[in-house]
Each structure stands twice: as C-alpha cells, then as structure tokens.
Amino acid sequence: MSRIDLDDFSxxxxxxxxxxxxxxxxxxxxxSVPRGALGRxxxxxxxxxxxxxxxxxxxxxxxxxxxxxxxxxxAGLGVSRRPAGGAAALVREVLEGTAPVAVLARGFDVxxxxxxxxxxxxxxxxxxxxxxxxxxxxSGRIDIEDALTLDEAEAxxxxxxxxxxxxxxxxxxxxxxxxxxxxGTTAAxxxxxxxxxxxxxxxxxxxxxxxxxxxxxxxxxxIRDALRRARPVLGDQLALLGAVGGADLAAITxxxxxxxxxxxxxxxxxxxxxxxxxVAQRAAFRAPDWWLAGHVSGxxxxxxxxDRMALEPLLDQGVRIGEGVGALLxxxxxxxxxxxTGELPVREQAAAGEPGTGEPAEG
Length: 363
What we know:
- There is one protein chain.
- The protein has helices at residues 9-12, 18-28, 40-52, 87-96, 100-108, 128-131, 150-169, 184-196, 200-203, 213-230, 237-244, 247-261, 271-283, 300-309, 325-329, 331-343, 348-351, and strands spanning 63-71, 112-118, 174-182, 266-268, 291-293.
- By secondary structure, it is an alpha/beta fold.
- It folds into two domains: 10-58 and 339-351, Nicotinate-nucleotide-dimethylbenzimidazole phosphoribosyltransferase (CobT), small domain (5,6-Dimethylbenzimidazole Phosphoribosyltransferase, Chain: A, domain 1), CATH 1.10.1610.10; 63-333, Rossmann fold (3-Layer(aba) Sandwich).
- The protein has a five-stranded parallel sheet, with helices on both faces.
C-alpha cells in the first residue's frame, strides 16, 4: 500500500452546499421572529441546513462524543500536573461514568465513545472496543525524538479515518470531538507554533489544571525543542504529525478530514482538537467549513489556531478541563438553533404569498 498523502483530501472535500445555505437564508427572512433577533443561532441553523442539504433544517438526532486517547512521552519532563502515563486512569473514569464529560453526556442523553490510540497501559485492562485501533503504547518524547515512525503516523491517520467512517455509517449526525491525554497540550502547542510560525512562549498555556510557573517553563522549553525538530518537515503533514504529534493527534487529524469527506459536522473542543484541525486545514482548505469551535479553553495555542482558521468559538465559560467538556456544553446551542430555525412559523403575509422584506420592524 502506498503512503497516504494528506494533500489528496483537498480534492475529496467539498464545502457545505451553498445553494442550500442561500435557501435557508431566504427561509429565515420569512420567519415570524425578525432576523438578527436570535443572534448566532441564525447562523448556526443555516450552517446546519447546508451541512444536511435540507431546508428547513432537521433536528440533531444522533450526536456522539468521540474521545481519542493517548499518553505522550514528553509528559515525563514534568510539563503537566498529571503524572506521565496517567491518561488510562482518566479513560477509566470516562468509561465508569464519573468523568465530567460522562456526567454531562448522560444528562444530555449523548453516547460517548473512547478510542485508545497510544495509552501507556496494558490493552487487556480496557475493553477491546476501546483498544482495537491502538497504534502503540505511548508516543515518543518529542523534544528529543519522533513521536511516531512514519508507518505509525500513517496507521494512526487511517485509524481516525476508519472511526469517521464507522460513525457516518452508523448514522451519527454530529460529532462532539475531544481528547483524553497527558502531555497532549504540549504536542498541540508544538504543532500550532510550527504551523503559525510563532515562538514557543506564544503558544504555551497553563493546561487544564493551571500549572505553576516552573512547570510552565519546562513545558515552554519542551515545545521550543520540539519546534526545532518540526521545522524541517513543515511541508509534509504526515511527517509533522510523526515528528511532534502523537498517535492520538494523528488519528484526530485523519478523523477530521474523513468527517469532512463524509459530510459529518464536528464540534471541536480544546487545544488538541484545534491543533489537529490546523494540520487538517493545511492539507484541505475546505475542511474547516465542516467544523464548529465549541468553546474558548484559555489555551493561547487554541486561540492562535482558531484565528488562523477563522473559527469563532460558541462559548466562553472559562472551562479548561478538556476531554470534550467545553464542546459538549455547546451542543444545546446547536440543537436550539436547529429547533428555532426549523420550527418557527413563517410570517402571515409570507405564508399567504404576499411580499415582505423580512427586515425587523422599527420599535
């Protein structure tokens, strides 16, 4: 099998249907509530219509939380308050229903799927459905070595693509995307810094548990060293993911690209999914049209990535925990947009075929 070329996705991905979007905008102008009165919910409803190729928009009936999991060797440098190799414990909390994302998903009646790509644990300690796509045990220490070999990077990308196909085939109509990792934000920072041409200090954040100054300096130094290794392979997205990414990040990148191919909308969560989205955008410039930025995580690398992709987050509630929580909190907004733009009645004169401007009346 020939090596996968992520640039090939550029020819496979089309934007959401513009004609349908225009039809959705025309219908919105006829609704009983004046245009603009619902704020961004109008825009969300029209985006969903274009993604679904349906006017009026239909409800989001089968959303699903997808969490890609992995441990990163760079965590051994003390770049996180969580212990190196500790992602497996976080995954167990999700599976047991005690993690914040699991609690929220239960309340929202949304299933959660965890995909182990590189957890540093015996695969027999987790369900086979979780571990069946695993590429390796832990990813390499990106400040001094590649996270993955090229073969492993390709296997991870293909695994992400396979998960996207499985979800599309099963009827998932919206994905809430997140990660469960230790050291993942360091790898994400290196990817964003490399792709945006910035220094390590510009993208180094405090993480979900607000690391102290000494830990921040170690994290910044790790990203700086990883950047030196990333710059020579900037022209090759697969090599970049292998050099300073990780199996979970490579899988998320493949997942995002294939979701765009399959016309499956995705809500992005924290800095890890934002960094992978930036890599995917580098390969296929139309792909971001299929994604929503769920929330502001407070990570500077996330803000940098969203600015580069012109994605505006839906929420800013100060949520830093990651693991899909912030993105899942935005799901009610997306559902509300679908309900309002799909079910609000049209104005009486529009229903009667009389001309109307659709403009809000002056009060």
